[in-house]
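Please review this one.

:::
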Amino acid sequence: MRATHLLIGAAMLLAAGQAFAAGIDLSKPWGNKSGCINKNGQEVYAEDMLLLTSEAFVTVASACTFTDRKPQADGSLLVTAQCEAEGEEGQTPAHFTIKRSAKSPKKLVIADEDGHVMGEVSRCR
């Protein structure tokens, strides 16, 4: 009986964690100003370009294609990706954390596996 209660409690926690993480909706693109301008393809060149979609994270010098997304208990997403850098051959694995900005809940923050913030993005219109 006690094991059943523990299993039900664990399932409820897991579902709650997934529902909260589902709050990070990547069904539409997110970016900074230049990233959103380029959401449908390269239209302008900008050193600061950041574009986040359901499938990739793109900067002016690199493109990372997501291979896995795992919702975390804190509401963030842990993303595994294969990245290609401009001027280099092949792909390298990478991990990113995508979470709500502490400064503005309407924005997302993208950080690398070392916690270095790569940028902050807003939903593109």
Q: What stands out?
A: The CA atoms of residues 62 and 85 lie 4 Å apart.
